[in-house]
Amino acid sequence: MTEAPIPPENSAGSSDDELARAGGLYYLVRWGFGPLARLIYRPRIEGVGNIPRSGPIILASNHLSFIDSFVLPLFAPRPVYFLAKSSYFDGSGIKGWFSNRFFRALGATPVQRGAGQAALDALDQQRRILESGKAIALYPEGTRSLDGRLYKGRTGVAFLALETGAKVVPVGIVGTNDAMPVGAKWPRMSPRVTIRYGAPMDLSHHGPASSGRARRQATDDIMSAIHALSGQELAGSYNEVPAQNPVERLKQVLPHERR
């Protein structure tokens, strides 16, 4: 198994400006949209006391719907930051401006998706946020589950936890795939959403972040905790984006670490 490369200490680009820019808007959106979302969806929120009110923390959640990235920051008891694909931030016109400001207000920072340097930059952004004492949200599966099953976790979340010492709070979200199924343009009004927070996990006993075995074992523990909270059927495989060419198909078949 190939070990994940370690992000350099001074990668280009910092999330500090993004976090500062999001501050005031975050609370405006949180206290504006939050009560409205609670009124419409009447969410069941369980185990909220498991989230430490200060210090670095990683919310590691399953991922069923586009609206998961609204549900997590709006209903959490403290500000939560997450990465979102850069296309949400670089649109043009009024629509592009609104999308940019809204996602920043939710606590999102833009990131180029992909492997190689893009993956390293994403990890480094998240590390910086944690080292500043904030909370971040991650989807260990990497992308949404299209069939409702829970897929194997990628090891980036474990790397961040082991590298920074942050504890991981597993999260099981239930019902967002009914509220806004894949392909829907707008969320439905009727289904109730359930959010379950598990007890914080200290993963340091697995070993250092530089150990591929430690990252894999820590990730498997996180996914087991998410499974206990969400009750999803286990897929037993990675949620891979369909390969676009023979080289990508070969890379998916060969043993490698999913970051």
TrEMBL record:
The Phospholipid/glycerol acyltransferase domain is annotated at 57-176
- What InterPro entries does the entry give? Plipid/glycerol_acylTrfase (IPR002123)
Give the region (Disordered) as residue ranges.
237-259
- One Pfam family hit: Acyltransferase
Record's superkingdom? Bacteria
GO biological process terms, alphabetically, are: phosphatidic acid biosynthetic process
Compositionally skewed regions (Basic and acidic residues) per UniProt: 248-259
The entry's keywords: Acyltransferase, Transferase
Q: Which CDD domains match?
A: LPLAT_AGPAT-like (cd07989)
Gene Ontology CC terms: plasma membrane
Designated name of the protein: Acyl-phosphate glycerol 3-phosphate acyltransferase
The organism is: Microbacterium oleivorans
